[in-house]
């Protein structure tokens, strides 16, 4: 059993058992209390991030999502140390039940992107051919660059294969990664880093590369590189950008489905 | 013409009442349920996850006017405003993968960071290129209204 009880005085043992029960790290506590900690921790670290972002007047490293992620991992790491277990085990028993409840709500949130997409249906109807062609050609160019960058940094074939499908939404990218000989956990991690990075640096990158002169391109780029979170960022830039990012999430995922396996085969990855 | 359409749409949206929030949630739940039935029908070599299927279904329902914006917009916009927070558990999930980071080193993270910027810039510039083509080669009007 993982609890403070093993390491401390009898007085501490009572507290350790009580805390372990509440967090669900003791076998006995693996029921009611345990989802609450994950939800509580997620909200607290995100709110701390929002507060830091506000008092630093929008410093990019204090983006709430980024702060929440780093602080959350750090707190779990410290608590795992205190409970005398490793971070992964503690994460699974104490955080995951609550985390999964919040995670589930990404389902309706993703569906909701049909709304900003439909709001600018005029753009979709006028430019659907340009949109689809840009996503296919743009993704192919990206695949070549990502392949050579990965090669340059000395990743092995499995590592390269894990990098290629990251433009797709996680649920599509993971099986595609496996089918081209990659590691789906690395691909999932890449998708998370995409989203966090675009949310933290999206405004900055759009400014540096002067992307907003073409709102359709900016939207498609943000949706491809940042997935759902990138789409939320694009909506802040404007209705066209939001609509285009929503369509990019869907179309790019399907393009990855179709294009990445032959591309990986051509490059001799599997 | 498209602009006129849009203007009249927003006007009518103001006149009509939003659906009660429980009905909006019910529509989302129904779409999720149908998509969860449909998405396993796709072969493993061509996965279509439930939320992507749901996005397409809701878009089709909106286009065919079976579902109107006032039926789903309030709850949908609320969910979208939460998306950065909803992503916190995915970020914290990396706590479970700290050993992968150790094994594969920092290269994976650096390549991913570069790949993110590459995807953003490549797609955006390719689109700008295609818009330039349709403007100058196919002489289409590519002016858009914000």
Automatic annotation (TrEMBL), chain A:
It is found in: Membrane. One of its GO terms (molecular function) is hydrolase activity. The chain crosses the membrane at residues 27-48, 60-83, 95-115, 127-150, 170-201, 243-264. Coiled coil: none annotated. Its main location: membrane. Keywords: Hydrolase, Membrane, Transmembrane, Transmembrane helix. PANTHER family: PLASTIDAL GLYCOLATE_GLYCERATE TRANSLOCATOR 1, CHLOROPLASTIC, PUTATIVE SEROTONIN TRANSPORTER. This is Effector of murein hydrolase. It comes from Levilactobacillus spicheri DSM 15429.
UniProtKB/TrEMBL annotation, chain B:
PANTHER family: ANTIHOLIN-LIKE PROTEIN LRGA, HOLIN-LIKE PROTEIN CIDA-RELATED. GO terms for cellular component: plasma membrane. This is LrgA. Keywords: Cell membrane, Hydrolase, Membrane, Transmembrane, Transmembrane helix. It is a multi-pass membrane protein. Its main location: membrane. InterPro entries: LrgA/CidA (IPR005538). The chain crosses the membrane at residues 21-42, 48-67, 79-96, 108-133. It is found in: Cell membrane. GO terms for molecular function: hydrolase activity. Pfam families: LrgA.
